[in-house]
Amino acid sequence: MALCLESETEIKDNMNFGRFLTDEKNADMRIKVICSELPEKAVNTASGRKCFFVRDGSEYLFTAYFDSSDMAYKDYACRVRNENGITLFVDYPEGLWDSMLMDALDIPDLLLERNAAFVHASFIIIGGEAIIFAGDKQAGKSTQAALWSKHRNALTVNGDRVILKSENGKIIAYGSAFCGSSDIALNESAPLKAVILPGKAKENSVESVSAPQAFRELLGKMTYDSGRSDCAERAAALAAETVGKVPVLRLLATPDVRSVETLEEALCRI
Fold it and tell me: Residue 66 belongs to what H/E stretch?
């Protein structure tokens, strides 16, 4: 998904987002950024970091930051969507930068509308195919990606986030500018060969994960607003499609080359 942001105020970028710049003609969506006071909020709207509601045929998504001096959330942006497109209002005196705008646009929401979603995973490419290590913090996903890079010369595309997309009957893995603390964010993509659920152990083993369990595990690692039924349904549909087309394996692993060899043998049998 390529976005074109039109803003009269300069948008500051960082190195990660700079890698994902593309030609304006490739834009799938155009967003107008306006620095001004935010639209009026709906009456009785609950406060919090994100607030979504529909009024007079338009969708409003307010995004806030936590002000520690007042110990309260303060809205700084409002995404307004209607039949004429998307406008992003920003009221923040310290300027604009890309990561702030990406958060205010709610990229996970926009991705789900296009059969795609963020997954908490490390992402490598080897032999022209993608393997993702999907796991919670300290599960070993970054360790396994690093081992494959060291011992099998795999390309580590992202150390923390991957975008999975249903495309032409296949599941494609895409790199992302969002990478957590890993600082690894490359603009690369490849068909998904397998989803690996890593865990730490003294001995290495690999087993197939049943479809119901694989669905629950993958959905739990996707980024979506569980409070909105439309987002939850789209995420569930993509998770179901992914586990129906791509093998999901559980890897109990040691932090050395033996885990690579064990998983490699299992992948060769797929």
Answer: strand 58-67
Alpha carbons within 13 A on the beta-carbon side of 83: 2
Range with the largest mean pLDDT of 89-98, 136-145, 219-228, 256-265: 256-265
Both tokens assigned to 46: 């609950």
DSSP three-state, residue 78: strand
- With contact defined as beta carbons under 8 Å apart, do 3 and 86 qualify? no
Please answer whether residues 4 and 27 qualify as being in contact, where contact means their C-beta atoms are separated by less than 8 angstroms: yes
Cα 248 from Cα 223, distance rounded (Å): 19
Report the SS3 class of residue 48.
coil
For the chain, how many residues are written? Answer: 270
For residue range 208-234, list pLDDT tens digits in order.
Answer: 999 999 999 999 999 998 888 999 999
Strand 189-200 and strand 248-253: pairing?
parallel
The token pair that represents 41 in the structure block:
């909020």
Give the whole-angstrom CA distance, residue 124 versus residue 189.
10
| Amino acid of residue 181 | S
